[in-house]
Amino acid sequence: MCFICGKLCSRSRKQEWSMVESSIDLSSKSIFAKVNRAANERKAEAMLLRLSEVPNGNLVAIEARYHRKKSCIASYLNLKSIEATTKNVSETQTRYDEVLNELMTEVRSNIVEQKQVYLLSTLLSRFVERLAKSNGPNAQQYRSQLLKAKLISKYPELSFIPQTPYSDLVCSAEITVGDALRKAEQLLNVIQQSEEAQIGTSSSSAFAKQAMTA
Predict the structure, then answer these.
(1) Chain segment 4-29, per-residue pLDDT in tens
(2) Most buried pick, 18, 22, 91, 193, via CB within 10 A?
(3) Helix/strand/coil (H, E, C) string of the chain?
Protein backbone atom coordinates (compact mmCIF):
# COMPACT_ATOMS: atom_id res chain seq x y z
CA MET A 1 0.00 0.00 0.00
CA CYS A 2 1.28 3.47 -0.89
CA PHE A 3 1.95 5.40 2.32
CA ILE A 4 1.00 8.63 0.54
CA CYS A 5 -2.26 7.90 -1.27
CA GLY A 6 -3.20 4.77 0.68
CA LYS A 7 -3.94 2.78 -2.48
CA LEU A 8 -2.62 -0.67 -3.34
CA CYS A 9 0.89 -1.20 -4.65
CA SER A 10 0.21 -4.32 -6.69
CA ARG A 11 2.94 -6.97 -6.76
CA SER A 12 1.94 -7.76 -10.34
CA ARG A 13 2.73 -4.15 -11.32
CA LYS A 14 5.98 -3.55 -9.46
CA GLN A 15 7.18 -1.21 -12.19
CA GLU A 16 4.69 1.38 -10.91
CA TRP A 17 5.92 1.67 -7.33
CA SER A 18 9.07 1.67 -5.21
CA MET A 19 10.14 1.03 -1.65
CA VAL A 20 11.42 3.96 0.38
CA GLU A 21 15.11 3.05 0.33
CA SER A 22 16.39 5.93 2.44
CA SER A 23 14.87 8.04 5.17
CA ILE A 24 16.83 10.99 3.75
CA ASP A 25 16.18 12.47 0.31
CA LEU A 26 18.69 14.13 -2.03
CA SER A 27 18.42 17.45 -0.19
CA SER A 28 19.58 15.73 3.02
CA LYS A 29 16.26 16.34 4.71
CA SER A 30 14.05 13.77 6.38
CA ILE A 31 11.39 12.46 4.01
CA PHE A 32 9.21 11.75 7.02
CA ALA A 33 9.55 15.34 8.27
CA LYS A 34 8.74 16.82 4.86
CA VAL A 35 5.64 14.65 4.41
CA ASN A 36 4.60 15.36 8.00
CA ARG A 37 4.94 19.11 7.42
CA ALA A 38 2.91 18.90 4.20
CA ALA A 39 0.25 16.85 6.00
CA ASN A 40 0.00 19.51 8.71
CA GLU A 41 -0.34 22.24 6.10
CA ARG A 42 -3.03 20.23 4.35
CA LYS A 43 -4.68 19.41 7.71
CA ALA A 44 -4.74 15.82 6.47
CA GLU A 45 -5.84 13.92 9.57
CA ALA A 46 -5.64 10.48 7.96
CA MET A 47 -2.05 11.06 6.87
CA LEU A 48 -1.05 12.51 10.24
CA LEU A 49 -2.53 9.48 11.96
CA ARG A 50 -0.68 7.18 9.57
CA LEU A 51 2.62 8.97 10.20
CA SER A 52 2.11 8.92 13.97
CA GLU A 53 2.24 5.13 13.80
CA VAL A 54 5.70 5.10 12.15
CA PRO A 55 8.30 4.26 14.87
CA ASN A 56 10.87 7.08 15.09
CA GLY A 57 9.74 8.31 11.68
CA ASN A 58 11.73 5.50 10.02
CA LEU A 59 9.95 4.82 6.73
CA VAL A 60 12.62 2.33 5.67
CA ALA A 61 12.09 0.14 8.74
CA ILE A 62 8.37 -0.25 8.02
CA GLU A 63 9.10 -0.92 4.33
CA ALA A 64 7.03 2.06 3.21
CA ARG A 65 6.07 2.10 -0.46
CA TYR A 66 4.96 4.82 -2.85
CA HIS A 67 3.66 5.05 -6.41
CA ARG A 68 6.53 6.13 -8.62
CA LYS A 69 4.53 6.54 -11.83
CA LYS A 70 1.88 8.62 -10.09
CA SER A 71 4.59 10.80 -8.51
CA CYS A 72 2.80 10.49 -5.18
CA ILE A 73 5.55 11.99 -3.00
CA ALA A 74 6.39 14.84 -5.39
CA SER A 75 2.72 15.73 -5.82
CA TYR A 76 2.04 15.62 -2.09
CA LEU A 77 4.94 17.96 -1.33
CA ASN A 78 4.19 20.35 -4.21
CA LEU A 79 3.43 23.82 -2.83
CA LYS A 80 0.86 24.67 -5.50
CA SER A 81 -0.94 21.41 -4.81
CA ILE A 82 -0.96 22.18 -1.08
CA GLU A 83 -2.34 25.69 -1.66
CA ALA A 84 -5.04 24.37 -3.98
CA THR A 85 -6.31 21.85 -1.45
CA THR A 86 -5.99 23.94 1.72
CA LYS A 87 -9.27 25.82 1.23
CA ASN A 88 -11.33 22.69 0.55
CA VAL A 89 -9.71 20.84 3.44
CA SER A 90 -10.36 23.77 5.76
CA GLU A 91 -14.05 23.78 4.85
CA THR A 92 -14.24 20.02 5.35
CA GLN A 93 -12.56 20.19 8.76
CA THR A 94 -14.91 22.98 9.80
CA ARG A 95 -17.89 20.77 9.00
CA TYR A 96 -16.35 17.85 10.89
CA ASP A 97 -15.81 20.09 13.91
CA GLU A 98 -19.39 21.37 13.77
CA VAL A 99 -20.81 17.84 13.71
CA LEU A 100 -18.49 16.76 16.52
CA ASN A 101 -19.61 19.72 18.64
CA GLU A 102 -23.24 18.76 18.03
CA LEU A 103 -22.56 15.19 19.09
CA MET A 104 -20.64 16.17 22.21
CA THR A 105 -23.35 18.64 23.21
CA GLU A 106 -25.60 15.59 23.38
CA VAL A 107 -23.31 13.21 25.27
CA ARG A 108 -20.60 15.18 27.09
CA SER A 109 -22.67 15.76 30.23
CA ASN A 110 -23.58 12.07 30.33
CA ILE A 111 -19.94 11.04 30.19
CA VAL A 112 -18.28 13.70 32.32
CA GLU A 113 -20.92 14.49 34.93
CA GLN A 114 -23.04 11.34 35.08
CA LYS A 115 -20.04 9.05 34.58
CA GLN A 116 -21.63 7.05 31.79
CA VAL A 117 -19.56 4.81 29.52
CA TYR A 118 -19.92 4.71 25.74
CA LEU A 119 -18.44 2.53 23.05
CA LEU A 120 -16.26 4.46 20.62
CA SER A 121 -18.04 2.59 17.81
CA THR A 122 -21.34 4.00 19.05
CA LEU A 123 -20.03 7.56 18.99
CA LEU A 124 -18.59 6.95 15.53
CA SER A 125 -21.92 5.65 14.21
CA ARG A 126 -23.72 8.67 15.59
CA PHE A 127 -21.08 11.03 14.19
CA VAL A 128 -21.24 9.46 10.71
CA GLU A 129 -25.05 9.51 10.81
CA ARG A 130 -25.10 13.23 11.60
CA LEU A 131 -22.42 13.96 9.02
CA ALA A 132 -24.31 12.09 6.29
CA LYS A 133 -27.59 13.85 7.10
CA SER A 134 -25.87 17.21 6.70
CA ASN A 135 -24.32 16.12 3.38
CA GLY A 136 -20.89 16.19 4.96
CA PRO A 137 -17.98 14.97 2.82
CA ASN A 138 -16.69 11.39 2.99
CA ALA A 139 -19.08 10.48 5.80
CA GLN A 140 -18.88 6.71 5.32
CA GLN A 141 -15.09 6.80 5.07
CA TYR A 142 -14.58 8.39 8.47
CA ARG A 143 -12.76 6.02 10.83
CA SER A 144 -12.87 5.51 14.58
CA GLN A 145 -9.18 6.37 15.04
CA LEU A 146 -9.72 9.78 13.44
CA LEU A 147 -12.67 10.45 15.74
CA LYS A 148 -10.64 9.28 18.73
CA ALA A 149 -7.78 11.62 17.80
CA LYS A 150 -10.20 14.55 17.56
CA LEU A 151 -11.79 13.73 20.91
CA ILE A 152 -8.41 13.43 22.60
CA SER A 153 -7.28 16.82 21.28
CA LYS A 154 -10.53 18.66 22.04
CA TYR A 155 -11.81 16.93 25.18
CA PRO A 156 -8.98 16.13 27.63
CA GLU A 157 -11.57 15.27 30.28
CA LEU A 158 -12.31 12.04 28.39
CA SER A 159 -10.48 8.75 28.78
CA PHE A 160 -10.21 5.84 26.35
CA ILE A 161 -9.85 2.22 27.43
CA PRO A 162 -8.76 -0.26 24.72
CA GLN A 163 -10.68 -3.54 24.50
CA THR A 164 -8.81 -5.49 21.84
CA PRO A 165 -10.33 -6.75 19.59
CA TYR A 166 -13.44 -4.77 20.54
CA SER A 167 -14.21 -1.07 20.37
CA ASP A 168 -12.58 1.28 22.89
CA LEU A 169 -14.57 2.45 25.89
CA VAL A 170 -15.05 6.20 26.21
CA CYS A 171 -15.51 7.47 29.74
CA SER A 172 -14.68 10.26 32.16
CA ALA A 173 -11.01 10.53 33.07
CA GLU A 174 -12.16 10.72 36.69
CA ILE A 175 -13.47 7.15 36.96
CA THR A 176 -11.26 4.12 37.46
CA VAL A 177 -10.58 1.50 34.82
CA GLY A 178 -12.34 -1.05 37.03
CA ASP A 179 -15.51 1.05 37.18
CA ALA A 180 -15.41 1.61 33.44
CA LEU A 181 -15.05 -2.11 32.73
CA ARG A 182 -17.89 -2.92 35.13
CA LYS A 183 -20.13 -0.43 33.37
CA ALA A 184 -19.05 -1.85 30.01
CA GLU A 185 -20.09 -5.34 31.09
CA GLN A 186 -23.47 -3.99 32.12
CA LEU A 187 -23.72 -2.18 28.80
CA LEU A 188 -23.00 -5.32 26.79
CA ASN A 189 -25.57 -7.26 28.80
CA VAL A 190 -28.22 -4.65 28.03
CA ILE A 191 -27.37 -4.74 24.32
CA GLN A 192 -27.43 -8.54 24.26
CA GLN A 193 -30.77 -8.71 26.06
CA SER A 194 -32.18 -6.11 23.70
CA GLU A 195 -31.04 -8.08 20.65
CA GLU A 196 -32.43 -11.32 22.02
CA ALA A 197 -35.78 -9.71 22.71
CA GLN A 198 -35.69 -8.14 19.24
CA ILE A 199 -36.99 -4.88 20.57
CA GLY A 200 -37.48 -2.30 17.85
CA THR A 201 -36.31 1.13 18.88
CA SER A 202 -35.64 4.43 17.20
CA SER A 203 -32.04 5.41 16.53
CA SER A 204 -32.12 7.96 19.34
CA SER A 205 -33.39 5.54 21.98
CA ALA A 206 -30.99 2.84 20.81
CA PHE A 207 -28.18 5.33 21.15
CA ALA A 208 -29.26 6.21 24.68
CA LYS A 209 -29.24 2.56 25.70
CA GLN A 210 -25.56 2.29 24.87
CA ALA A 211 -24.51 4.17 27.98
CA MET A 212 -24.76 3.03 31.58
CA THR A 213 -25.30 5.36 34.51
CA ALA A 214 -23.40 4.87 37.74
Answers:
(1) 887 888 888 877 888 887 655 545 47
(2) 18
(3) CECCCCCCCCHHHHHHEEECCCCECCCCCEHHHHHHHHHHHHCCHHHHHHHHCCHHHCCCCCCCEEECCCCHHHHHHCHHHHHHHHHHHHHHHHHHHHHHHHHHHHHHHHHHCCCCEEEHHHHHHHHHHHHHHCCCCCHHHCCHHHHHHHHHHHCCCEEEEEECCEEEEEEECCCCHHHHHHHHHHHHHHHHHHHHHCCCCCHHHHHHHCCECC
